[in-house]
Design a protein that fits this description.
Elements lengths: L5 H18 L5 H14 L4 E11 L2 E13 L3 E6 L6 H14 L3 E6 L6 E6 L1
């Protein structure tokens, strides 16, 4: 059985691994995001960084917006972290973003450790 968006998922994770291999762990999230932007561009992967999303509630547009770290391939939410470890709150945040955007796949990538920690999040 093939995973949803399997090829795209593997490409994104592969580029995250490349960034981690070169930069290592322990830097700020912004550094990894900038490096990922370069990798996505170099590999012709469609992406939007810090994409703004509007939140609707009972026919009203809320003033508060949310900004996904990346939206790749027009639908995959990529959340970049640089924390000691991924926790349930990170997964919940990604799931919330996926619900708002109607995305079927989210990726959490944590660059803080000796090796890249990543999690596939599916609705």
């Amino acid at each position: 059985m093939e995973l949803y968006k399997q090829e795209e998922y593997y490409k994104v994770i592969g580029l995250c691994m490349e960034v981690h291999r070169i930069l290592g762990g322990g830097l700020l999230e912004a550094v990894y995001k900038e490096a990922l932007e370069i990798e996505f561009t170099n590999h012709n992967i469609p992406f939007e960084r810090e994409k703004e999303f509007i939140i609707e509630y009972k026919g009203h547009t809320l003033k508060k917006r949310f900004y996904a770290d990346f939206v790749v391939y027009d639908e995959i939410i990529l959340e970049v972290k640089a924390t000691k470890l991924l926790v349930d709150d990170n997964i919940v945040q990604t799931l919330n973003y996926m619900n708002i955007t109607k995305s079927g796949l989210g990726i959490l990538a944590n660059f803080s450790n000796k090796s890249l920690q990543h999690k596939r999040v599916v609705l």
